[in-house]
Specification:
The structure holds 2 protein chains of 2 kinds. Chain A is an alpha/beta fold. Chain A contains 14 helices and 11 strands. In chain A, the strands form 2 sheets. Chain A has an 8-stranded parallel barrel with strand order 1-2-3-4-7-8-9-11, surrounded by 8 helices. Chain B has a single domain, classed as Alpha/Beta hydrolase fold, catalytic domain (Rossmann fold). Chain B starts with a strand and ends with a helix. In chain B, strands 1-2-4-3-5-6-7-8 form an 8-stranded mixed beta sheet, with helices on both faces. Classes of the chains: A alpha/beta, B alpha/beta.
Chain lengths: 428, 260
């Protein structure tokens, strides 16, 4: 089992009356709520938290991309990943960029270049995530055409992969991208290319594509293991239909967790940040959720017609409850009961995560241990307690039976560079 | 009046439905948001003394998946021009509404022999920074009819699932119609038509619903100033963006008067 520590980098000081006075945390969130001098501290706290997680022994630290978003302050995750690569040389976790939305960048070779840079700087620790991107990020914040988005994304993917793997200079002559001389410098340490993970929202076409390309499928839902189980079952049904093995490392799953000495204590400690996240951070105006063409017709058809419909309905219910629509009960009791956040003592959390990982057959757990307006102290407490008391109970899962073919293969540690220590300037 | 006739033509390899009703000089209709999923009252009034021909635009109801192969504005304009030819509308009068208005204007500009007189009802194609278009694709679910029409129920009737139709497939076709429009107009509705307006030499009637909540009234004059041909602006009292759904009689009357 690989345990990954994921940061969304939420703005932690949205006002108490945010959901009453504002329509959306995303796309047209009021920029007057943003205080850059406070964000200076937030960014530095968040990077401290990621580096602390690395030092505690998490297998990977993960960053992701959002735009115009009050719960995701990383329009460019590559900037954060580059600093993490320099600051985590000793602990040496995988650096998981989860990831870059390929269709947003012109030319997409820029992504091939930046990721190759990070792979070189980190000595081959990069995991390359390629999401299509949410409607809010891609179609509204970045103005991408929803009717072209997926075809453009696939073509950009092809271009990036060729840029990484073709040793010769070549011209790319695509429908959306034409480049006379593709020849990126630098090239990634990991050959033929860094492991590719595809974050998805449950569409069967993405399952099929991951199977075809032999990529990790990572289901990034904020609604926990109860809502996620049906999607993962669907994923494994698709793998089996396509003749793929049940190697749990084909999959990743996102889960919020709060550990404390007891469940009661956890409910108390994590109440405020969890309610902040599921209340304020998921307060997304539904006007931005479904630009026409974003969802493929086949996915719509399956959603409406197949037996998965029941599951999709359940998920839609969850989404309604959590702010995409009319917010209802967002108490910590509801959040815990629905499984959005797993709360408990180390033993309780370990038992639940074992059960989740086994039931979903997921080898890459992407954990959110900081969420909402959680302070650095609490995030570090959660991280440390998890690393010391939970991780040992789940780390060995699957490893006797399955090999993770989708994990970075870095340079041997003794061959990797050690950054010079930061020198304090001498007083004048 | 004659019965509604339906036939299919092949446009870019895609089977495409053509509807036709009425006698007299042919007049074509390129619809706006939602397309023409069913024949409606305005088309009947228009067909009282004209042969009304409604070709299905690619991706709009009756137009299959033809939109998916159209990438550039030139692709769309050529497809629409071919469609006029296939529908027997070449050289006839042409009415374009909203999305369809942007295409009708471009066809008139690029292929002047294809269009005799042009009628544009709240056409897309321009975007004025100081007076922006309302984003039709960023509306809360189930509310779009309220900004399209002063009689929202007319839009709901137009797009309601027919009794003999699979609701899932119908729903997908309605979303596809919105996608097809988005394909050439996303995100702002600006096809840079302003550069081609001077090429429109046809007499052009610009109709605007007085209550249009999508495209500001001020755009009518910008169109009129840009077009080289003789222009006439008329405001339709009580109508919204899809003026022909709200006020079918008044819109048809204005068109009859203008096209002769």
């Amino acid at each position: 089992m690989k345990v990954c520590w994921f940061h969304l980098m939420p703005y932690t000081e949205l006002p108490d009356d945010f959901t009453q006075k504002h329509d959306s945390v995303w796309v047209d969130i009021d920029s007057r709520l943003f205080d850059p001098k406070r964000a200076h501290h937030m960014y530095n706290d968040f990077m401290d938290e990621l580096e602390f997680a690395a030092s505690c022994g998490f297998d990977a630290i993960c960053v992701n991309e959002h735009h115009n978003n009050g719960y995701g302050l990383m329009p460019s995750p590559n900037i954060i990943a580059a600093t993490l690569a320099r600051r985590t040389t000793e602990s040496g976790p995988a650096i998981c960029i989860m990831g870059n939305s390929l269709a947003l960048y012109n030319p997409p070779t820029r992504i091939a270049e930046e990721m190759a840079m990070i792979d070189c700087i980190s000595g081959g620790r990069l995991i390359a995530g390629f999401p299509v991107g949410t409607p809010m990020d891609t179609c509204y914040a970045f103005g991408e055409n929803p009717s072209h988005l997926r075809v453009k994304y696939r073509e950009a993917h092809d271009l990036v992969m060729q840029a990484w793997t073709n040793p010769d200079t070549f011209s790319f002559n695509g429908r959306y991208h034409q480049i006379p001389y593709v020849n990126i410098w630098p090239r990634p340490v990991q050959q033929p290319h860094p492991p590719v993970w595809i974050p998805g929202g449950g569409s069967v076409e993405t399952f099929e594509w991951c199977a075809e390309m032999d990529y990790v499928y990572s289901y990034l839902s904020y609604f926990g293991y109860k809502a996620g189980l049906a999607t993962m079952n669907d994923f494994w049904d698709t793998m089996s239909r396509l003749g793929k093995d049940r190697n749990p490392y084909r999959a990743g799953f996102l889960q919020f967790v709060g550990v404390a000495e007891s469940k009661e204590e956890a409910m108390k400690l994590y109440k405020e940040p969890a309610e902040y996240f599921y209340g304020r951070c998921l307060h997304v105006d539904p006007r931005y959720s479904s630009p026409p063409g974003y969802t493929t017709e086949e996915t719509m058809r399956r959603k409406y017609k197949s037996q998965v419909a029941a599951v999709a309905d359940k998920k839609a219910d969850s989404e309604k409850k959590s702010g995409l629509g009319t917010p209802v009960d967002m108490s910590i009791e509801f959040i815990e009961r629905e499984g959005y956040v797993i709360l408990g003592s180390p033993d309780e959390v370990a038992e639940k995560l074992r059960e989740v990982a086994i039931n979903m057959n997921v080898g890459h757990l992407m954990l959110l241990l900081q969420y909402g307006n959680m302070s650095k102290d609490l995030a570090n407490y959660n991280t440390k307690l998890f690393a010391e008391k939970v991780m040992p109970q789940i780390h060995g899962l699957f490893d006797d039976e399955w090999e993770d073919h989708w994990w970075p293969k870095p340079m041997p540690k003794q061959e990797r560079a050690i950054p010079a220590p930061i020198k304090q300037e001498a007083a004048e | 009046m004659s019965e509604l006739k339906e036939r299919n033509v092949t446009l870019n390899g895609v089977e495409t439905r053509i509807w036709e009703k009425g006698e007299g000089e042919p007049i074509g209709y390129f619809p706006g948001f939602g397309g023409t999923p069913r024949w409606h009252a305005f088309l009947d009034v228009l067909a009282e003394n004209r042969k009304v021909i409604v070709p299905s635009l690619p991706g709009f109801p009756g137009g299959g998946l033809g939109h998916l192969e159209l990438d550039s504005q030139l692709d769309w304009v050529m497809a629409c021009n071919d469609l006029l030819d296939l529908a027997g509308l070449k050289g006839s009068d042409l009415v374009g509404v909203g999305f369809g208005g942007a295409l009708a204007a471009d066809v008139a500009a690029v292929f002047p022999e294809s269009v005799r007189k042009l009628v544009l009802i709240s056409p897309y194609g321009l975007f004025i920074d100081k007076d922006p278009i309302t984003n039709i694709w960023a509306q809360r679910p189930g509310t779009v009819q309220n900004i399209l029409c002063t009689h929202p129920e007319r839009f709901l009737e137009l797009t309601a699932t027919p009794n003999d139709y699979d609701p899932t497939e119908w729903n997908i076709e309605m979303i596809r119609a919105a996608e097809a429009g988005a394909r050439f107009l996303w995100p702002n509705g600006n096809t840079r038509l302003s550069r081609r307006l001077p090429r429109i030499k046809q007499p052009t009637l610009l109709l605007w619903g007085a209550e249009d909540k999508v495209i500001p009234q001020s755009y009518a004059k910008i169109f009129a100033d840009g077009i080289s041909g003789e222009t006439k602006i008329e405001t339709i009292t009580g109508a919204g963006h899809l003026a022909e759904l709200d006020e079918p009689e008044a819109v048809a009357k204005a068109i009859h008067a203008f096209t002769g």
